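Subject: Sanity check before I submit

Could someone independently write out the structure tokens for this chain? I want to compare against mine line by line before I put it in a report. The sequence has 165 residues.
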Amino acid sequence: MAPGTQATKPRNAQESPTLDLDRYVPAFITFIANKLSNSATIRYQNEFGVNVTEWRIMALLAIEPNIAASRICQVIGFNKGPVSRTLAEMEKRGLVAIRTDADDARTHSISLTAKGRATHDRVILVALDRERRLLSCLSKSEHEVLIDLLRRLHNNLGAVTGNGS
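---
Independent answer below. Compare away.
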């Protein structure tokens, strides 16, 4: 077994290798992401009437107003179908405005409405507090190292996705 392999060795010839979940990085990332997302959805839905997917879209639209759905998919990593359905629901609830490009009817520009921006401004306070509490077990330098490592992993996703994202 190669150094750094994240599987346990079979105890006998008939036993298959298994993952060591205490060392397998994709599992850690997935477990953390799932638990963060689930708890955020519960809290954001109860307090602000938005789920975590809607929050992620709102957060991106606050940073990059008037973008296309394809940009949202690219940054957040969601498929177009769920993003389109979420945007349609958000538009119905008055959180986003979707405008058709005058030059290309297939292209749409999405932005937060005043209601969407006000909701964003309330949710972000909770989101930043959740981040602060999550990272409270790290020193400032460890926090910076974590950000660097996560950025490098994100930039290296093409090594496993085959499409550079």
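---
OP: Matches mine. For the report I'm noting this point. Strands lie at 7-8, 18-19, 96-100, 108-112.
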